[in-house]
Structures are given as C-alpha cells and as structure tokens.
Amino acid sequence: MEKTKLARLAVEALKKAYPEAVCSLEYTDPLQLLIATRLAAQCTDARVNLVTPALFERFPTLEAFCASSAEEIEPYIRSCGLYKTKAKDIFAMCHALRDLYGGVVPDTVEALTKLPGVGRKTANLIVGDIFGKPAVVTDTHCIRLCGRLGLTDQTVPQKVEKDLWAVLPPEESNDFCHRLVLHGRAVCTARKPNCGGCCMQGFCRFAAAEK
C-alpha cells in the first residue's frame, strides 16, 4: 500500500479510537511544558506529573529558576532519574531563555533546539501543543508503531520524523503523534502487541505478518 494512503488510514482509525488527543504531561504555561518534557526523558509521564507540582510551587517563574542553582533543583526531581543532568539542563535552559529570547519560549523548532537539553522531539512537542503548528514528535511509541505499520523503516528519530513529514497531513500530525502514545500504551505495546484488539489491524504490516 502507498504510504500516504496508509498514513491517512492510520490517522482516521486512531481518531475514532482516541477522539481526545492530548499530551499526558500536566502544565499551565509554555515553560512548564518545556521543563516537564525534559524531565520525561527516560521517565514516565505519570512520574513527571507527580514531581512537577512541588517543583513549580518552589520555582513558579523563569526568574525563580534563574535565581536558583542546579543543586537547588535536584531534590525536587530526584525520582525522575538522571536528575543531576536534568537539573543542570533546566537551570541552563532557563538562563538561555532569559538571555537569548527575552524570557519568552520561542515558537520554532530551530530556536528551541538552541536551548540546553532541548532536542527535536521536545521542540516539536512545544511547537505543536503550545503554538498549534504542525509537529511530528518521534518518541519511542511513534517510532515503534510507525515501523510496525510500515510508515517507516527507520529507527533514528530524526529520520523517522522526515519519513512522517512526507506522508502525514500537516494538520493531523501533532494529534496523530499523541494518539500513537495512547495506542502504544494501551494496545500496541513494546513487549506484546494486541493485534486482535487493534483498530489498525486491517492495514498494519506487522499484524499481517502475524497471521
């Protein structure tokens, strides 16, 4: 099947299965989402959501983060894993936001990836969720599911992103990636995909091979 058609079938199937396509990280402003996404690296969103209320209560503004230190941030994020590196990135990120962008979270992938600790996955999430622009967030669920479907044969995030930009309707791309996360957690898991309960089994390459 031609990949553009396959992508549209996947978009429509997931839209019916998961009408609400939302980010599972909890936040109230762009800075909070940026920090929460950095914390979510090699950590579950559920864990991050347990940690961020106390973190953002202690550091409610960009200025509060800038006036602190990585060492002051560390205790609040310890349970997220790699907390020393993440604390250094958050502290440096906030200073860069203040010094490079006047304290305003930028709205392009190019500008966002100039911030410490911000890669294309995080940048695309911010661009899509905060600014409502087309975005492709290539997290582990996206890479796994799109490979199984046959939308890409790549496993490197930036290469998967490139493949998906070529076949996804731009206006659907951000919600599609959120729905992949929901489906990857509930049905198409890494360990044991439930092809029999999948809304995409009729056109999925992996499901066809399993028959």
From TrEMBL:
Q: Which PROSITE patterns match?
A: ENDONUCLEASE_III_2
Catalyzed reactions per annotation: 2'-deoxyribonucleotide-(2'-deoxyribose 5'-phosphate)-2'-deoxyribonucleotide-DNA = a 3'-end 2'-deoxyribonucleotide-(2,3-dehydro-2,3-deoxyribose 5'-phosphate)-DNA + a 5'-end 5'-phospho-2'-deoxyribonucleoside-DNA + H(+)
One Pfam family, short name please? EndIII_4Fe-2S
Entry's cofactor comment = Binds 1 [4Fe-4S] cluster.
The record's section on CDD domains has: ENDO3c
Q: In its UniProt entry, what is this protein called?
A: Endonuclease III
The processes (GO biological process) annotated in the record are:
base-excision repair, AP site formation
Q: Which cofactor does it need?
A: [4Fe-4S] cluster
Asked if the keyword RNA-binding belongs to this entry, the reply reads no
Query: What keywords are assigned to this protein?
Result: 4Fe-4S, DNA damage, DNA repair, DNA-binding, Endonuclease, Glycosidase, Hydrolase, Iron, Iron-sulfur, Lyase, Metal-binding, Nuclease
A GO MF term: 4 iron, 4 sulfur cluster binding
Q: Binding residues for [4Fe-4S] cluster, per the UniProt record? A: C188, C195, C198, C204
Source species: Yeguia hominis
